[in-house]
Amino acid sequence: MTSAMTIEVPVLDNPDPKTLAEEVLMSLKYRVGKDTTVATPYDWLTASIKVVRDRIIDHWMEATKEAYDRQEKRVYYLSLEFLIGRLMRDAFSNLGLMENMREALSSLGVDLDVIAALEPDAALGNGGLGRLAACFMESMATVDIPAHGYGIRYANGMFRQEIQGGWQVELPENWLDHGNPWEFERRERSFEVGFGGSVESITSKDGRLERHVWKPTEHVLAVAYDTPVAGWRAKRVNTLRLWSGMPIDPILLDKFNAGDHIGALAESNKADALSRVLYPADSHMAGQELRLRQEYFFSTASLQDIVQRHLSQ
């Protein structure tokens, strides 16, 4: 059973609107690479998110360090869905920055409500399961329980719908078109995941069975992307780690040079499909196989990460 422990970390300050406005301008210039004359609403959104994210990071790192130093037990929550929604308003509220940030942006000629509406819903869930997982993550941070969430970083989510000629048309949910300013790519936290292959029996010199060895024929990488999850007043900041499927070799150059341009990318496309869509249609064998591969992919990557973290302590 995990017991909540209070960790003494620096209290996040509550900057005045003038200070926040200066930070937003600095973020716009040095993080987005724009000035106020050419900045788009999306640029202002990204700059504002980076400001609040920066205020979370110190708390996040300090809480993580304390958890390691005290060898605290962690809750690990694995879910195919995390319906975290739009994070900017939630973060402003949790950190007590909403009104000051609104005033700061207004002084720069930016309406907080307008740019907040541009933030896409993270297409990582569909319903109750995903909302429950997201609520658990935020609640555990609020009550000071160290936790990690694990899921899949779906590039296109489930689908978005349009009505054309009176009929529903399903289209990809391109929520990452403008990037995700909340997340951190962790290439160093990549794990190899195998599929297929065969199991070989290893025997001793006298013919006794010693062990079985699985030799997969297909290998992909699970690459981690981390999003900080802040509780109320950022008492604790936990981590949501999502896995993205990537090929070990992005292109088979021998096939490409031989003119088989499509075949050269086949393995890359197969790896990419693992983290492309939430709940792919399973009315056919290909869809059923992909769902099973997704479940295995994120489960084994998460377990490898958990075991590696434990051994490092």
Overview features:
disordered N terminus, 5-stranded mixed β-sheet, two-stranded antiparallel ribbon, single chain, 10 helices, 313 residues, Rossmann fold, 22% strand, alpha/beta, 42% helix
Kindly describe this structure.
With 313 residues, the protein is of the alpha/beta class. The chain has a single domain (17-312), classed as Glycogen Phosphorylase B (Rossmann fold, 3-Layer(aba) Sandwich). It is 42% helix and 22% strand. A five-stranded mixed β-sheet has the order 1-2-9-8-5. Strands 3-4 form a two-stranded antiparallel ribbon. It has a two-stranded antiparallel sheet with strand order 6-7. Strand 8 and strand 9 (237-247) form a beta hairpin. Helix 1 (17-32) packs across helix 2, helix 1 crosses helix 4 and helix 2 (41-69) crosses helix 5. The two termini are 19 Å apart. 33% of the residues are buried. The model is unreliable at 1-11 (pLDDT under 50).
Strand segment tally: 9
Mean pLDDT: 91
Assigned CATH class: Alpha Beta
How many domains, in number, for the residues?
1
| Computed structural class | alpha/beta
CATH superfamily: Glycogen Phosphorylase B
The dominant shape is globular
Largest sheet: 5 strands, mixed
Uncertain regions: pLDDT < 50 for 5+ in a row? 1-11
Helix tally equals 10
Whole-angstrom Rg: 23 Å
Strand content: 15-25%
What is the chain-wise order of helices and strands?
Answer: HHEHHHHEEEEEEEEHHHH
N/C terminus separation: 19 Å
CATH fold naming? Rossmann fold
Give the strand order, joined by hyphens, for the main sheet: 1-2-9-8-5
| CATH architecture group name | 3-Layer(aba) Sandwich
**Share of helical residues:** 40-55%
